[in-house]
Amino acid sequence: MIWLLDLDNTLVGRAEAFEAWASGEVDRAGLGPADLGAILAADEGGHGSKEALARVLIDRLGWDDDVPAAIRRFRAGILDGVRVYDGVLPALDALRGAGHRVAVVTNGTSAQQRGKIARCGLGDHVDAVVVSGEEGVAKPDPRLLEIALERLGAADADRRQVWMVGDAGHADVAAGRAAGTRTAWVSHGRSWDGPDRPDVVAPTTRAALALATSPPGVVLD
Question: What CA–CA distance (Å, rounded) separates 43 from 220?
């Protein structure tokens, strides 16, 4: 089996790191919940425009930074606080120990995404890392997944033996479907409210991997 795994909010807690950093900045500025809420809304769980988020931070927090400097500032805050989710590293090791191949397939800049991987010690637990900022193509474009399969030496793999695992339906699940792979959605407690439910829906990445590797008919809530 081949596993293509998203990074942010799938292997590492990017949303948690951003919220903790933003909360600290709001407290230091003497502001309140409404300001934090506006900042989190602008972030869109990491999927929003970085420039738009920077402008909200400048406006709400009274920063003197220009937009590029504000982007560098909040990215540094995320890197300082990002952590790998509990149980993820042993789960990746178990997959590879069973002969499976594993790749991180992530949207983002090279410095930021590889910085998270280095900080969380993920590099030694996967076989390849593919970053959209290095390849010039981003999920949901299936070409990013095809690049990952090539890096794993599996370009001709039966797509029924390939899983795309991630928390973003519009990016991860969509990319997997476009590439013809099986899909697992990490819900973090959300409900899948669209058509074409992914092959696996689970609250955590560890649970998604466990369900995807379980015999047919097994149900994991």
Answer: 31
Could you state, in order of their start, the residue ranges of all structural domains in the chain? 2-13+84-212, 14-81
- pLDDT tens digits for 77-132? 999 999 999 999 999 999 999 999 999 999 999 999 999 999 999 999 999 999 99
Burial class (CB in 10 A: 0-12, 13-18, 19+), 115: middle
Q: How far apart are CA 203 and CA 221, in angstroms?
A: 8
Class for the domain spanning 2-13+84-212: alpha beta
Matching residue, tokens 């931070």? 57
Report pTM. 0.92
Class of residue 145 by CB neighbours under 10 A (exposed 0-12, middle 13-18, buried 19+): buried
For residues 202 and 187, the answer to whether their CB atoms sit within 8 Å is yes
Q: Name the E strands within 67-202.
A: 101-106, 128-131, 162-166, 182-186, 200-202
Separation of CA 12 from chain center: 7
| Residue 214 three-state SS | coil
